[in-house]
């Protein structure tokens, strides 16, 4: 549906621009924006490769494992059924750890695996369990210690200090995660 909406917005804009005598300006704008988009994507690819390499080093050095060990006891308190199942809690830990390090691309397979494991534990297959809902909230509002995507985008567009968003990001994502957990736990009591 969103593709159809965008198609009509662009089509109407181009038609009105051409009918209004601004066809040449529209052509120049399309070419310039295409050029800058390609440059941005290429610079982002390089920066993302660098961050993925750094995170792979963190994973192989055992840093990710240490973070996972710290998180496991906390998550066992938060999740009811998943806490008793090593497969599901393991997938949850890996997903949240990858998200904390800003590797949402690496976190996606772990998130899918965690949701499959939580579905396996769910007794009512036609609706989400409390653990599934809490996982979705934590996945969406995960604390980010290193927001690699934001840093990469800021670096690609020429920011003088691309990493200056780390502290505000940690504060904002921590508050979001805490509020999300509180809301989930309150809703569990009533629904």
TrEMBL record:
Keywords: Membrane, Transmembrane, Transmembrane helix. The chain crosses the membrane at residues 36-58, 134-153, 165-187. Residues 42-154 form the Nucleoside transporter/FeoB GTPase Gate domain. The keyword Transmembrane helix applies. InterPro entries: Gate_dom. The keyword Transmembrane applies. This is Spore maturation protein. It comes from Clostridium aromativorans. The lineage of its organism: Bacteria, Bacillati, Bacillota, Clostridia, Eubacteriales.
């Amino acid at each position: 549906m969103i593709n159809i909406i965008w198609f009509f917005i662009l089509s109407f804009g181009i038609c009105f621009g051409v009918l209004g005598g601004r066809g040449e300006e529209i052509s120049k704008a399309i070419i310039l924006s295409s050029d800058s988009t390609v440059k941005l994507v290429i610079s982002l690819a390089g920066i993302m490769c660098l961050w993925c390499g750094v995170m792979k080093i963190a994973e192989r050095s055992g840093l990710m494992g240490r973070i996972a060990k710290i998180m496991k006891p906390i998550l066992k308190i938060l999740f009811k059924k998943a806490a008793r199942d090593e497969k599901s809690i393991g997938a949850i830990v890996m997903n949240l750890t990858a998200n904390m390090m800003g590797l949402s691309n690496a976190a996606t397979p772990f998130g899918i695996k965690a949701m499959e494991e939580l579905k396996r534990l769910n007794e009512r297959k036609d609706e989400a369990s409390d653990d599934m809902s809490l996982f979705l909230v934590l996945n969406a509002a995960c604390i980010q210690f290193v927001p690699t995507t934001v840093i990469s985008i800021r670096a690609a567009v020429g920011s003088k200090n691309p990493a200056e968003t780390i502290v505000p990001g940690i504060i904002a994502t921590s508050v979001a995660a805490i509020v999300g957990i509180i809301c989930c736990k309150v809703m569990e009591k009533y629904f």
